[in-house]
Amino acid sequence: TSFSHTPHPPSMSGTPTSPQNPVDAFQQHLNTLDRESETPSQDEKQPYLQKYNVRHALFQLLEKEIRNIHSHTEALEKDTNAIDVAALKAMNSPTHNSPHIMHLGQILYRLGVNYFDCEETSDSELFLFAALYMLSDNAEPLRSCFVPKTDATNTDHRMLLSSQRHMQISLKNDLLLTHIANVHPSSLACLLDFVDICNYFGVIWTNRHEYNNALKFFERAEALYKQHHNFIADSFAETHEKLVEMQTLTTFYLAQVYGHLKQIHLSAKYSFLTLKRQLTSGLEYDPTQWVRNAIQLSSYFLSQDDFVMCDHCLHAALDIWKKAKPEIVDAINNNDDNTFIDIEDVHNLDANLQLAFARQSFALLEHSKNWIQNWRSHQDKLNKSNRFTEQELFPTEKIKIQSFTELTSLMNFDGIPKRDEFFVITSYKDALQSFKKVKKGFESALKFYVLDGYVTEHVKTCQQLSSAYTQLIFYEVNPVRRIAMHKRRAALLDPILDELNENVYKDNLKVLTFELGQLYSHMHDEYGIMEERGDNLFGMDMQTLFNNDNEVMLKSIEYFSRFHNYFKDSEGNLEVEEANRPAFVRAHFCLASMYYRIHTNDVEMQRKFLLLSHSEYKLVVQFAEEHPVKDMSVELEMAKDMSTLLPAKLKSLKASG
Asked: What angle do CA 345, 466, 531 make, to 5 degrees?
């Protein structure tokens, strides 16, 4: 699971306060610069102008703060224009102006953020590291991470920050990654900056696609939060509030990084924690984005057959949306400048929620069908007759669906009801109830995803509803009612064909015509079942059954033929993409079968259909030889046999005629 990427954490508005750390002139100056840094530039041609002005002011403040440590001249270069970071850090003792060392760290941190905001990542990284060095309680392990740049003017091992605004050093990232887990902030007063620096380093490495490196910094930020948040919560409310906000960002970033590392389970865990923290922290959040993310997270749990967690996420999303929607709609109607969505976005979110609930019910039907098929396969091995009575088609006991994630019992959204368990659907009655939920959700979504404007979404939703009918058909034992459901599928999909432009939506047309061809062939199968029974034609005589069967076979031929034509180029040559080759072969195998089985007493018509059937079987064999297709060995062997046998049957038919 992956959320939309947030570029970097928001800047903190100064060092948090406590009775031991009053807001002095220095802190007030920093707070002012923080506010100015967040002010957008009025010059569109110079979007970073305000940032550059703040950067200049930060360097002035940096030089002023160094001169507050003036008496220790070894900390300055002879020209007083370059700062020896290591020498300054050495003064961090009770007798050596340690508050000023922390001030330097705070300034360097803001310079790092400033360079990051201006997309100057390399310089940002160096300033952030210098800040980390200043703010740490034991900087000696970090000292080895600094190495001098190989130029003629700086060949020693001092760590110089020049007045030309560049670090005259390089950073050994491998050593930093080794030491970061053992570095701590020198005091609680700089904890927020320290944690935020870890987050920034994590984001920098994420942007480089070095996700394992990013993980080390985010894990360090999380560890610092866990280590200190209880004490801070009891003593420093303002600091704790900001720390909670930072930890929410850290949790969000961890979800991102674990997703990139394909550790999907951990990504889902931290995504859930992010959503929960947004609800419980008391901080502001965007309810529309929260709902979207909850829907997305529910899809992960659904992919794991964890119906309990999927259901919990969706009901949380529904609860948040019901509370937020009226206020959002009022703001839109009143043209509120602070509202960044329009009424179409609202309807879109309504539709997505309906779809998410529908897909959950659909997945439950599909999961149950697969479970029962496996169960029948096992029963088949025990049942020597290889036949089942209708009463034996479904298990009689309740089967609980086991969760495949540990999160099910551990994670809850406060105040949101949570189902304890889901069961395999084992009866038509229960399947129908789930199907009604699916149908209601998809049909509600289709009111928004109309064909004129949302072609892809409309077609996909119609196909999903059609597929839901196939799940319900599995539970229906009456072939007449199964045929009726297939007809509803056809009525859903067929009208779309004439509305789509072939030049633009040819891929959609291929999918739709193939599905329509298949569903009519399934109807033919149902008539075949009725014909086999003979004594029970559900109120039809045999001739009516044959007529109906012929009708659906001709419809299947019609749609599979249209499917075939979509693979022809402007000159009539076939161009079948590799991904479509299995469907192409199946379509022609069905065509051959339909032509072969059409009922007729007219010998000439029968001969015509058998010739067409023979042609289709030969096409299947030839195409498969030129373009091997996996998992179709049985069909290909049958096609080869029919290609050999049909000429003899045609000859016999001609002789008898």
From this structure: 170
**CA–CA separation, 70 and 450 (whole Å):** 72
Kindly tell me the sign of the dihedral angle through the C-alpha atoms of 53, 56, 61, 62: positive
Query: What's the residue count for the chain?
Result: 657
Residues 192, 239: contact at Cβ < 8 Å? Answer: yes
Instruction: Say which residue, 335 or 610, is predicted with more confidence.
Output: 610
Three-state DSSP state, 284:
coil
Lowest-confidence segment of 95-104, 212-221, 486-495 by average pLDDT: 95-104
Give the residues across from 82 on adjacent strands.
Answer: 162
For residues 133-143, give the mean pLDDT.
72
Q: Look at the alpha carbons of 493, 497, 500, 504 in this order and tell me if their dihedral is positive or negative.
A: positive
Bridge partners, residue 415, by sequence: none
E strands, 48-134, are 82-84
The count of other CB atoms within 10 Å of the CB of residue 354 is 20
Which among 504, 518, 502 is positioned nearest to 463, based on CA atoms?
518
Matching residue, tokens 């025990």: 382
Q: Exposure pattern of 56-66 as b/e (b: 16+ CB <10 Å)? A: ebbbebbeebb
Percentages helix, strand, coil for the chain (3-state, rounded to 5) are 70, 5, 30
Give the amino acid at 102.
M
Write out pLDDT tens, residues 574-608.
999 999 999 999 999 999 999 999 999 898 999 99
Contact 512, 493 (CB under 8 A): yes
> Which pair of structure tokens corresponds to residue 265?
């389970």
H or E segment and range at residue 161: strand 160-162
Name the amino acid, one letter, at 641.
D
Please check whether residue 165 is in contact with residue 186, taking contact to mean a CB–CB distance below 8 angstroms: no
The answer to whether the pTM exceeds 0.70 is yes
Q: Name the band, by pLDDT with cuts 50, 70 and 90, for residue 97.
A: very low
Whole-angstrom distance, CA of residue 289 vs CA of residue 295: 10
Cβ distance 65 to 161 under 8 Å?
A: no
Q: Which tokens go with 609?
A: 């259909």
Q: Which residues have C-beta within 8 Å of that of residue 206, sequence separation ≥ 6? A: 214, 253, 256, 257, 260
CA 404 to chain CA centroid, Å, is: 19
Degrees to nearest 5, angle at CA 293 with 435 and 40 = 150
Looking at this protein, which amino acid is placed at residue 512? L
* CB contact at 8 A, 89 and 101: yes
Higher pLDDT, 137 or 632: 632
Yes or no: say if 328 and 346 are a contact pair by the CB < 8 Å rule: yes
Burial degree of 101 (CB within 10 A; 0-12, 13-18, 19+) = buried
- The amino acid sitting at 605 is M
CA atoms within 13 A on the CB side of 511: 16
